[in-house]
Write a structure and sequence with these properties.
single chain; alpha/beta; 7-stranded parallel sheet; two-stranded parallel ribbon
């Protein structure tokens, strides 16, 4: 007779999930907690939703805190890290999940649209990651949420968004080299169409997105979170792009 163990892979670790009030971020925060981690989540406008995530994490027996931080603001992007360390005592895992999209023909996008998307999706990720790397010890984990559109774009209208997410691939690979000697890993996860509040599986554009995948369906936030949290515990995977996209890039 064999006995299955339920060892928590991240017990005693502390994680920061940016944009953790809903969708993939919220699912990741809960999954991290189930694996034993204490969790800080950032939000901009979703204070009540973020506090719900905190309560759900605490119900799992872990510490949690919600921090208001706009990834598009350079000071707030970096200060989220120091706030998480202050509340949790340390930082072992960073999940760069906060991001925005501005879809449409290039000529329809204003300079303000370009600046905002790049500020949140690229500059904010860089600044948060830099601050996190400065306080992480050996064994730290950085996981960034990219997009299936960084690997394959199936139609027009996504130029700005795809560009911003493709930049994170270069960041991740460079981080793996820069931080590898310290035993810190950096990886990027590319979700495909995922059923969230912002992109529901029954939305007006859902049929085309589902049809672009090999499995013919949207993924769930939990399916993406599963891979993110696996990478948060993996010691010998770094510089990798991992698609959780139902075959979008196949």
């Amino acid at each position: 007779m064999t006995t299955q163990t339920t060892e928590k892979t991240l017990l005693g670790r502390a994680a920061l999930v940016t944009g953790g009030s809903r969708g993939i971020g919220a699912a990741t925060a809960l999954r991290l907690a189930r694996e034993g981690a204490d969790v800080a989540v950032t939000y901009v406008n979703g204070k009540e939703a973020a506090e719900e995530v905190v309560r759900a994490v605490e119900a799992l027996g872990r510490r949690a805190v919600a921090l208001r931080a706009d990834a598009g603001d350079p000071d707030e992007a970096a200060s989220a890290v120091s706030a998480a360390v202050r509340e949790l005592g340390r930082l072992d895992v960073l999940v760069n999940n906060a991001g925005i999209g501005a879809l449409g023909p290039m000529e329809s996008l204003s300079p303000a649209d370009v600046d905002r998307v790049l500020a949140v999706n690229v500059r904010g990720v860089f600044l948060t990651t830099r601050a996190a790397a400065a306080v992480m010890s050996r064994g730290g984990r950085i996981v960034t949420v990219g997009s299936c559109m960084a690997q394959r774009v199936t139609g027009p209208g996504g130029t700005l968004y795809a560009m911003s997410k493709a930049a994170l691939v270069g960041l991740t690979k460079a981080l793996a080299r820069e931080l590898g000697e310290r035993g810190i890993t950096a990886n990027i996860v590319h979700p495909g169409p995922t059923d969230t509040e912002l992109n529901p599986a029954d939305g007006p554009y859902a049929a085309g997105q589902a049809a672009a995948t090999a499995l013919g369906r949207f993924g769930t936030s939990e399916e993406v979170a599963e891979t993110i949290v696996h990478l948060a515990g993996a010691a010998y995977v770094t510089g990798a792009e991992v698609a959780v996209d139902g075959g979008h890039a196949a």
